[in-house]
Amino acid sequence: MTTSAPDTVLITTSAPRRPSHPHSGRRGRFEPYVLIAPTVLLVLGLMVIPIIIVIVYSLFDNVVTNQNPQFVGFANYVTILTDPNFWNAVSNTLIFTVASVVIHMIIGVAFALMLNSKLVHALPGRSSARSTSCRGSSRHPWSPSCGGCCLDPSGVINYVLTTLGALQEAVPWLATPATALLAVTVINIWSGYPFFMISLLAGLQGVPTDLYEAARVDGAGLIRQFFSVTLPALRPVLYSMALLDLLWTTQQFTLIWATTGGGPINHTEVVSTYTYKLAFNSYQFSLASTSAVVILVASLFVAIFYVRQQKKASQF
């Protein structure tokens, strides 16, 4: 007679659960808001509240020099929009901005293509050549002050041109009404193109080489490859860079103020220097606030267009 071993039953017991703290769930809900609170406070203190104050100032007469400012509604806007000096500043800003953006793109594409060419690829130290070119162009000496020194009557530009016989005598480029706007535009172009060159070079690195090989098989030359392959591939980068450059250049102040101060005879006056002079030269703070609001509204349209372009690009 055989006896079987009794069945064994394994009973697993889990560790007792600790009772959750009654406030742990509430703490978890509020933790994200606590983390973003410093950023929200900075944005409110440095952007939102100052913008609201400027908008309110634009609706009163002179709010700083007048102890009892009076509400004038949109009278300041009528004054600004009918001021010939304001429209002269707008005209100079448009010329300065459009010329800078277009030539930034042209020079940036040209230098990016050069650094991405087969000639640079064939160099023994091509990585060193690229990095040296990018670092050197980003540290070139064309700051506003140095640019003003180079365009001085006794500066490098006049010395070279008079030595070569292109000029009979030195020209005060920044003090001559006919050349002042051109001079500050050249300084802005030269000081800003390295950023666009580096960004476009990064965009070129992302273009598949198969597209160029297929274009060569179809008989496309270098020019055809540029317009059919390179430009379409760089279009999202070009759109983004152009819109950002448009925003940055329209708000350019340091360059103009350090070189010409808006002169001579308002020939380089832009909207930023126009607003600054209203506030701190004429002490018309309400009119300066009004001009700032007009600039803000114009910049918002460009910013909205930029955001829409970015959303379209992200969908592809």
UniProtKB/TrEMBL annotation:
<feature type="transmembrane region" description="Helical">
    <location>
        <begin position="180"/>
        <end position="202"/>
    </location>
</feature>
<feature type="transmembrane region" description="Helical">
    <location>
        <begin position="94"/>
        <end position="116"/>
    </location>
</feature>
<dbReference type="InterPro" id="IPR035906">
    <property type="entry name" value="MetI-like_sf"/>
</dbReference>
<comment type="similarity">
    <text>Belongs to the binding-protein-dependent transport system permease family.</text>
</comment>
<feature type="domain" description="ABC transmembrane type-1">
    <location>
        <begin position="90"/>
        <end position="306"/>
    </location>
</feature>
<dbReference type="Pfam" id="PF00528">
    <property type="entry name" value="BPD_transp_1"/>
</dbReference>
<dbReference type="InterPro" id="IPR000515">
    <property type="entry name" value="MetI-like"/>
</dbReference>
<feature type="region of interest" description="Disordered">
    <location>
        <begin position="1"/>
        <end position="25"/>
    </location>
</feature>
<keyword id="KW-0472">Membrane</keyword>
<keyword id="KW-1133">Transmembrane helix</keyword>
<keyword id="KW-0813">Transport</keyword>
<feature type="transmembrane region" description="Helical">
    <location>
        <begin position="33"/>
        <end position="60"/>
    </location>
</feature>
<feature type="transmembrane region" description="Helical">
    <location>
        <begin position="285"/>
        <end position="307"/>
    </location>
</feature>
<keyword id="KW-1003">Cell membrane</keyword>
<protein>
    <submittedName>
        <fullName>Sugar ABC transporter permease</fullName>
    </submittedName>
</protein>
<feature type="compositionally biased region" description="Polar residues">
    <location>
        <begin position="1"/>
        <end position="15"/>
    </location>
</feature>
<keyword id="KW-0812">Transmembrane</keyword>
